[in-house]
């Protein structure tokens, strides 16, 4: 009888503990589930441009920001990769049918965004490097459901241009790999505003540091075919003795980095830190597309979506330059930092148009 009495008391005690635990712990679980349920109601889609997710550049960065937001806010992955420009309207339409917020990655999607956003006025859209532009027009249309996400690429271009120019100024005595012709180059994709803003800053600040420097620019009219960019870079290196090649062509530009490595010269990456892509890379002009995507999703989740978001510039950590390799002399990095300080305090205005 005593043993049964003991067991009964233990059972009652355990039951009481279980009730208390359920009551207290259940409240926390309910709160957590409510949060997750709210997040799961958010639906976000990402549509790449024709460069695709593996461009090691801005599509890749957009996906990184999207993934961070997806992990934090708990929405279901909806990513559509475009293969051609003709895919844009179709892919954005598909995305809008299944999501409340749709990201269009790239300037080339401006007209497609306008067409689809006007068809889905209750859905929100954000476009990297562009705005909503009606067919046959060149100016942006202000739509309440479209957020244009812009960057000051010219400021990032300025900083890496300063590094390149200072290295040329230092010369072969300090950097034996240089060819001694005071020449650097840019292998670009298509002549579109974000590409040209990078070039504008690169050339302007290179000339500020080294007024006699020769800056070559070649447009390949491509963001994908690495062979085109490699050929353009090889021409700059072998025919014009360029020492440093800045790739400004997305996935195509990886070919320019390969050419630099092959010929034993230096290269500069674009958008993301591309030092892991190729060992010739001494730094990269960084555009924090990932930050813009994540911030836009966060605002949307919190009911703060805006069709007039702030500019992602150097002062707001929207652009910059990646850590430099050990091939970059201290004075070159110091020159970039000096110009960065001037940009932030407003004493240096970097043009967005390519100087003559």
Textual characterization of the structure:
The protein is α/β, with parallel strands linked by helices. The protein has 2 domains: 42-149, Rossmann fold (3-Layer(aba) Sandwich), CATH 3.40.50; 153-287 and 319-345, Response regulator (Rossmann fold, 3-Layer(aba) Sandwich). The protein is built from 10 helices and 11 strands. The strands form 2 sheets. It has a 6-stranded mixed sheet with strand order 7-6-8-9-10-11, with helices on both faces. Helix 3 (88-98) packs parallel to helix 4 (110-119) and helix 5 (153-170) runs antiparallel to helix 10 (330-345). Mean pLDDT is 90; it is low at 1-39.
Shape: elongated
Q: Which homologous superfamily in CATH is the superfamily of the largest domain? A: Response regulator
Return the CATH topology of the largest domain. Rossmann fold
Secondary-structure-derived class? alpha/beta
Q: Beta fraction of the residues?
A: 5-15%
- Fraction of residues in H or I helices: 40-55%
Main sheet summary: 6 strands, mixed
Order of helices and strands: HEHEHEHEEHEHEHEHEEHEH
- Put simply, the count of helices is 10
Mean pLDDT: 90
Low-confidence stretches: 1-39
Number of E-type strands = 11
Mind telling me the CATH class of the largest domain? Alpha Beta
Number of domains: 2
Distance between the termini: 102 Å
- Which strand order does the major sheet show? 7-6-8-9-10-11
From the alpha carbons, calculate the radius of gyration and give it in angstroms. 26 Å
* CATH architecture annotation name of the largest domain: 3-Layer(aba) Sandwich
Pfam family, one: Bmp
Main location: membrane
Subcellular location: Cell membrane
InterPro entries: BMP_lipoprotein, PnrA-like
